[in-house]
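User: Show me a protein chain along with its predicted structure.
Assistant: Here is one chain, sequence first, then structure tokens.
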Amino acid sequence: MVVETATLPPESPPAEPGAPPAGDAALLSAWLAARDAPCPICSYNLRALRTPRCPECSAPLHLHVGSDNLRLGPWLLAVLAPALALGFDGVVSILLTIGVTLNPPVSPGEFQVVLAILGTFILLAAASLAGILVLVRKRRRWNRLSVRAQWRIAAVLFTAVGAGHALFGWLVVSRTM
């Protein structure tokens, strides 16, 4: 079995601000010596590149390892659902609290209804915050999922949070009118 090894050149300070270190430039040049690779900005073929800048558009370049699973779209959709819910539930809870404080319900029955609605909004806000924390904590596990699975989970989560809030809104409106 043949194992390729790469010796890293010693790190030296960048030649100009924002430019990669000289060692990175050498690794990039070595990697592109016999490979076709497009510039990520202008798609110019970088084969046999000698400097860490695209000769076509002058964009600074560097060599890195990436993964197709690191997609921002599904992650943002998954986090956006509980974040929107947390914002909405938090604002409604604050407004209800101010409203009840400034204009308290007359009868105990009205007070119980308002208290139940306020409690439910606070509970929904807490559940949304917990969902965000779980998503942030399990980010590495999320990144191991296929991109397709990430999109499915994000879409289901977004739909479930929206449907849950719509159902609760419908229940509140139908019970109070």
